[in-house]
Amino acid sequence: MKMLFNPSITMKRILILAIVVLSLLVTVLVYVTGGIQFAYSHAMYVPVIIGAIMFGILGGALSGFLGGLLLGPLMPISVAESSMQDPINWLTRMFFFVLIGIVTGYIVKELKQYFKKRIEYHSHLPDARIPLITRLYEDYENAAPETIENSALIYIKVLNYNNLNDYLGHQAYIKLLGNLFIRLNKALSNQVMIYSKDIQSLIITIRDKHTQKDVVEHIESTLIKPFYLNNIPVHLETVIGAAEYDETIDVTIQHAIKAARSAEHNFFTSVIYHEDLEVNQQRINLGFVLDAIRDDDFYLLFQPQYNTDQTIICLEALIRWNHKNYGNIPPNEFIPLIEQTSLINPLTEWVIKTALKRLHELKQHGHHIKIAINISTKNLYYKDFYANVKAWLEYYEVSSDQIEFEITESTLMHNPKASEMTLHALKDLGVQLSIDDFGTGYSNLSYLSAFSVQKLKIDRSFIAKMSVDASARTIIETAINLASGLNIETVAEGVETSEQLTTLKTMGCHYVQGFYLSKPLAYDDVLMMLNQ
C-alpha cells in the first residue's frame, strides 16, 4: 500500500516504463489478432487505469493519449484486408481513453484523500494532529528490544480540563492542546515522541531512561509559561508522572499514571515512579475498606478550632485507619485512593454518622459545639447525599447548624456546576460549608460567594512561611480582607507559634487551629477538655 500510493523516484521511472511497455504489448496484441475490429483493443484500458492509479489525473490522461495514439492512425481496422481507420474513429477512441484516464485519476485522488483522512482520524487526535496512543503501541512493536528496555514514559494530565472546556469551548480547548503539543515538540526537540492518551492527557516516550528527571524538569519549566488564545493568556494546570520501561508498555503506562496521581494528591508538580508507590497501594487494598468500616478499624480524632481569644468553637473530625496487618496508615495514603472509587460514599457515611453520634453524646453532657467534616466532591454528586444527611441529622437529634462540611478548593472547582445544586440544598437545610486549603487551587472568591461559603481555611503552607516570607504574609492578609468583604469567616490552619497567633489576630482572622493550641484528640480527651 505504501509503495502504491507513495512511489519513490526510481519506482516512478520503473512504473512509467512498465505502462509504456504494457501499452505497446496491447498494441501488438491488437495487431496480431487481426486489427481494431476485434474486442482486444479494450485491453488498452488496463495501462490507462494503471497510469491513473499511479500518477493521478495527469497520468491517466497521458496514458489514455498514448493508448489512443498507438491504436490510432497506424492501426488498421482489419490487418487481413489492410483497411485503415477513419480519423473520427481513432480520435473518438482516444477521447474516451483520455476521459477514462482523467475520471479514474480523479476517483483515485478522492479515494486517497478519504483514506488519508480516515487514517489520520484513527491515528491522530482530530484537529490537534497529535498521534494517538495506538501509534505508541505500533512504534514499540517495531522498535528494537534494547531500545525499548532503555526507554521511559512521561504522563501529563491536564487538571483544569473541565473548566477550560466549559469556558473556552471544545474547539478552543483542542486548539490549546495542539499548541501544547507543538510547544513540547519544540522544547524537547528529537529526544522524545509525544502521543495523546485521551482528551485530557499526553504520553511522552524518552529514548534514554537516565534522562527522565532532566526531561521532567524541562517540561515543568515549559508548562509554566501561559498559552495565548485570541491574545488571552491561558494557564494549564498539570501533573506529571514518569516511569522507566518495565515488563510491557501497558505496565509502564500504569506506573506513570500512578506517579501522576501521587503528584496530584500530594500537591506536587511531578513524581517519578518508585516501588514505594506500589507498596502503599498493596497496603491499602481497597477490597478491605468495607471490612474495615464494618469492623471499626477506622476511628476519628478531633482537632479543636479556636477563636483568637482561644475559646473552642468547633472540632474538625479527622479519620484514621488502624489496619489489622499494617497498623496505622496515614490518611494521605488511603484517602486519595478511596476518593477515586465509589467507596468514598460509604466511608463518608461512616464519618458523618460517627461524628453525629459524638455530637449527640456531647449534647447529653451539656456541650453544644460544632463539628467540621471533610467530604469529597463525589459525595456531592451522589444523588442521595442530601436526603441521607437530612435523615441522619434527624436520627441523631443534631441541629443542622452544628455541622460544617469542608471541601478542598481545587476539587470543588474541577466541576462547580455539578455540585452547586447539592450545596445550595445543604445551605437551605442549615448546614455550613467551609473551603479547605484555600490558596492552593483556583482562589476564585466569586465562586465562593456563589456557593454561599461561610468559612475559608487558609492553607497551612502560607501560615508556616508568614514570618519569613513577605509574599505569604501579603496573601494571607489579602485573603482575610477579601473574605471579610464577602461576609466569609476565615480560619488559619497549622498555627504552631504564639507569634503566628498574634499576627493572625492583628490581621483580623476569625479562627485558628494548629499544634500550638492543640493536637488532634481522641473523643474522651475532647470531652475531658470541654468539661474543664
Question: How does this structure look, described?
Answer:
With 532 residues, this protein is an alpha/beta fold. It has 3 domains: 2-125, no CATH class; 130-282, Reverse transcriptase/Diguanylate cyclase domain (Alpha-Beta Plaits), CATH 3.30.70; 284-531, Alpha-Beta Barrel (TIM Barrel). The protein is 55% helix and 17% strand. The chain contains 23 helices and 18 strands. The strands form 4 sheets. Strands 10-11-13-14-15-16-17-18 form an 8-stranded mixed barrel, surrounded by 4 helices. It has a 5-stranded mixed β-sheet with strand order 4-5-3-8-9, with helices on both faces. Strands 1-2 form a two-stranded antiparallel sheet. Residues 1-5 have low confidence and may be disordered.
How would you concisely characterize the structure shown here?
The strands form four sheets. Strands 10-11-13-14-15-16-17-18 form an eight-stranded mixed β-barrel, surrounded by four helices. A five-stranded mixed beta sheet has the order 4-5-3-8-9, sandwiched between helices. It contains 23 helices and 18 strands.
- How large is the count of helical segments? 23
What is the terminal-to-terminal distance? 86 Å
> What proportion of the residues is helical, as a percent range?
40-55%
Residue runs with pLDDT of under 50 for 5 or more positions: 1-5
Mean pLDDT, to the nearest integer, reads 83
* Whole-number tally of structural domains: 3
Count the strands? 18
Write out the strand line-up for the largest beta sheet, numbering strands in chain order.
10-11-13-14-15-16-17-18
Residue share in β-strands: 15-25%
CATH architecture of the largest domain: Alpha-Beta Barrel
User: Largest sheet, described in full?
Assistant: 8 strands, mixed, barrel
